[in-house]
User: Which sequence fits this backbone?
């Protein structure tokens, strides 16, 4: 079994869980990374005062009519900025011009493989699936 490299994190993508659930240990490692990536991909660059290079709000792709292939490259690069992620591959399916489904498959530095699916439109980023 792969060893976890990092400590713990609070659970939650859009907000903390009501009971402040803490994700820790190897069994929660993938969920912790998936939630961290979803937050990173829905936070505007410069949205964190203490880390001006954190995040890339993927809703801007739709508002700016960015080509899906360009967006895939940007998302992959942003995912690799997460210190636990070794590699990431993004595939985007355009569902009508105003909604995208984004699938990200990656590998953690511990060797664990993960998959994350997001539904994105001009207003929302929804975490559809993460394993």
Assistant:
């Amino acid at each position: 079994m792969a060893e976890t490299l990092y400590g713990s994190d609070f659970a939650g993508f859009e907000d903390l869980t009501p009971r402040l659930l803490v994700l820790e240990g190897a069994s929660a490692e993938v969920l912790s990374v998936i939630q961290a990536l979803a937050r990173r991909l829905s936070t505007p660059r410069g949205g964190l005062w203490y880390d001006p290079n954190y995040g890339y709000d993927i809703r801007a792709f739709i508002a700016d009519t960015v080509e899906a292939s360009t967006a895939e490259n940007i998302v992959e690069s942003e995912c690799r900025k997460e210190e636990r992620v070794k590699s990431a591959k993004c595939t985007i399916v355009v569902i009508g011009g105003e909604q995208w489904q984004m699938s990200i498959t990656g590998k953690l530095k511990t060797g664990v493989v993960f998959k994350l699916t997001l539904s994105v439109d001009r207003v929302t980023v929804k975490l559809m699936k993460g394993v």
Remarks:
- Helices lie at 26-40, 59-63, 68-80.
- The longest helix spans residues 26-40.
- The two ends are 16 Å apart (CA to CA).
- The chain has a mean pLDDT of 81.
